[in-house]
Amino acid sequence: MKIVTDSSCDLPKNLIEKYNIDVIPLKIEIDGVDFTDGVDLSHEEFFKKMKASPTLPKTSQPSPQSFLDSFKTGVENYKEVLSIHLSSKLSATFDAANVAKEKVQGDIETFDTLSGSIGVGLQVLKASQLAAEGISKSDIVEKLREYRQQMNVVVYLETLENAVKGGRVSKPKEFVANLFNLKPVVHVDEGYVKILKTLRGKKKGLRTLIEEMEKKNIDFQDRIIGITHCDCLEDALALKDEIVEKFSPKEVLLTTMGPVIGTHAGPGGLLVCF
């Protein structure tokens, strides 16, 4: 079986290569220049360009043709294809995959993660591990539904600058937030991004990520926890150390957040998925 996903998954390159995952890249436009995520624009380059730009980057879903090519090759070489993608509530990527699916004859199934960034990635990783064990596609999809239901994604936002650039927050509101050092924490709920709480100060904001994990009262010893960051490696490493010390998870995957979610999280954004 061939596993297909999109570049919003933010999985480390070594895992993509290990499980031979086909990653369909999304598109990004910065200051009128078009880039292809992960092809001619790395995460590091994206953050530099985003910080320097007066306007918010624009992201768009892959073309149906890119899915067509992947699905045709997948069916020919593997017979079955499972295509796992960014929340349909956040992007038209899932729709593009479905358009392509209807045009290719073969055993193809699309799956909406109702998540973003490493929340997508961990579901792709789980599917890949199950496929490597010889689990059937139908059983993998059932297990993914259960995993998706249990998954939590919480994001700390260091700044509202990108929300202002994108027209989602007015400059006076940003001024007030900066004046009082307010830090929003958002979460993914049924595929949508919603405000969880707004706190004063970075320390309280980051502490909330740990508190949200504590609230769930989960035994993390058999769980993989994902962390992605927007050019704030030091904060991400500190968060990882605290998570390892407090929860003793099976593994912590730490990587950079890509353009798709990073555009809206902004510099200093930090996401934890558990």
TrEMBL record:
<dbReference type="GO" id="GO:0008289">
    <property type="term" value="F:lipid binding"/>
</dbReference>
<dbReference type="InterPro" id="IPR050270">
    <property type="entry name" value="DegV_domain_contain"/>
</dbReference>
<feature type="coiled-coil region">
    <location>
        <begin position="196"/>
        <end position="223"/>
    </location>
</feature>
<protein>
    <submittedName>
        <fullName>DegV family protein</fullName>
    </submittedName>
</protein>
<dbReference type="InterPro" id="IPR003797">
    <property type="entry name" value="DegV"/>
</dbReference>
<dbReference type="Pfam" id="PF02645">
    <property type="entry name" value="DegV"/>
</dbReference>
<keyword id="KW-0446">Lipid-binding</keyword>
<dbReference type="InterPro" id="IPR043168">
    <property type="entry name" value="DegV_C"/>
</dbReference>
<keyword id="KW-0175">Coiled coil</keyword>
